[in-house]
Amino acid sequence: MQVQNNELWSRCLDYVSERVEPKAFKTLFANISVESFDGASLVLRVSSDFICEQLDNKYSSVFATALKNSYGFVPAVSYNVVIDSNAGLERQGTTAFNTVSAPKQVTTPVEIRNPFEKQHNKITIDSNLSSEYTIDNFVLGDCNRLAYNAALAIADHPGTIFNPMFLWGASGLGKTHLVNAIGLEVQKRHPEKSVLYLSANLFMRQFVEAKMRDEVNDFIHFYQLIDVLILDDVQDFAGKTGTQNTFFHIFNHLHQSGKQVIMTCDKDPNELEGIEDRLISRFKWSLVAKMDVPDFQTRKDIIVRKAKNYGMELPQDILELIAKRVSSNVRELEGILTKLMAYSIYLKSELNVAIVEQILGPQPGSVVTEAQPIDTKISLNTIRERVCAYFNINESALQCKTRQHDVVEARQIAMYFAKKLTNDSLSVIGNAIGKKDHSTVLYSCRIVENRMSTNSEYRSKVNEIHRYLIS
């Protein structure tokens, strides 16, 4: 009986192969196998819903004719969708067509691979949200009022108002905190909705893994199931064409389905480099809200809130001193408070202005941030020459492929200042400093900015180089 079934199916495939494009036949038909045939109903084993849809729509006529020529009639066809036979991921299909004009209606629940759970046969979603970043402990100020009010509206009505949302600003200003808080509020107010937070970098790694396993369709289907997708640092998509293309289709599906999309970025959409125009245009559909550097009063409020978390209560004079001296971002404020706590606990000393002055160190020069653009313009050659002189390396070393620490650091800092202090394009900068592409320049700038926000010693070095460059 099985031999006869195989012969009939082989005839059917021969008929189809003569009438469809070779590439379409290889993709859609070649790997279909017969699971059972009882004389009236035919059960086929396929590898994805996409194949079912194509057979029952675009190729329904030729497929039905092939069945009729091979079996003598058009049997009732159903599918078993086997996503990963090794993991036991299989879904029973329902009756498809029994005439040429009756396409299959899929009514069975979807069970596809979750890229966060490699060996599960059911979808389980861990939101990846942090319980520490709530709406209650987010400090409101003029620097973030628009974003905050939009976040509350989204939490009440996800997928309707302010969808999508594009939140941008320099590193360390609270973007991740706020979008995380939105996710937690949605879970609290709409427990039936699935929420997922992840970084753009993690999304890219998952996409690469899905390509290697030939599971891109399942990867896309998984993300299309999410009700609220929160994607952090979308600027990391720069230069990643395949990832951008995949996210484009996921974005479109979620938006058209009334599902909420929230993105963060370190730049306004108009300033992004290496991102396709069609994605940029969709970013602009969004409520584009900027997170600015907190003003003096907001910094004081943040310090009070953070200090309470550490069990500290700072005198007003110390509070104002820190707020005046640390003005770049929230992460730097947290770093200073950690030092103060360590001094107070481990050295068993009361804090006073003199001690805090000592902990803060000498007044740093102006830090180059998004909120403090530098108007002074110097040449690329000057930047390259003086940065190399500072690190005591030859300019030619910047053009070599090496992982020597001093050379890599000098190249990154030179690219950082070239972007800040010149009007040259990213491509020109990359070619002049290391013969790199524009995405490498963007990456180097992010590395420098991140290290400056978390490492005071490194920040002092960059400020010193800055003064040397403009002297």
In which range does the helix fraction lie?
40-55%
Q: If you average the pLDDT, what whole number results?
A: 81
Rounded to the nearest angstrom, the distance between the terminal CA atoms is 89 Å
What structural class results from the helix and strand content? alpha/beta
Instruction: Estimate what percentage of residues fall within beta strands.
Output: 5-15%
Q: What is the name of the CATH class of the largest domain?
A: Alpha Beta
How many β-strand stretches?
Answer: 9
Tally of DSSP helical segments? 19
Structural description of this entry:
With 471 residues, this protein is of the alpha/beta class. It has four domains: 2-95, DnaA, N-terminal domain (GMP Synthetase, Chain A, domain 3, 2-Layer Sandwich), CATH 3.30.300; 145-290, P-loop containing nucleotide triphosphate hydrolases (Rossmann fold), CATH 3.40.50; 296-360, Helicase, Ruva Protein, domain 3, CATH 1.10.8; 380-470, Chromosomal Replication Initiator Protein Dnaa, Chain: A (Orthogonal Bundle). The chain is 50% helix and 11% strand. It has 19 helices and nine strands. The chain has helices at 2-17, 22-29, 49-56, 60-71, 145-156, 175-189, 200-212, 216-224, 241-256, 277-285, 296-309, 316-325, 330-346, 353-360, 380-391, 405-421, 426-432, 438-454, 456-470, and strands spanning 33-37, 41-46, 76-84, 89-95, 165-168, 195-199, 228-232, 260-265, 287-290. The protein has a five-stranded parallel β-sheet with strand order 6-7-8-5-9, sandwiched between helices. Strands 1-2-3-4 form a four-stranded mixed β-sheet. The longest helix is centred in the C-terminal third of the chain and has 17 residues, at 330-346. The radius of gyration is 29 Å and the shape is elongated. The termini are far apart. The relative contact order is 0.07.
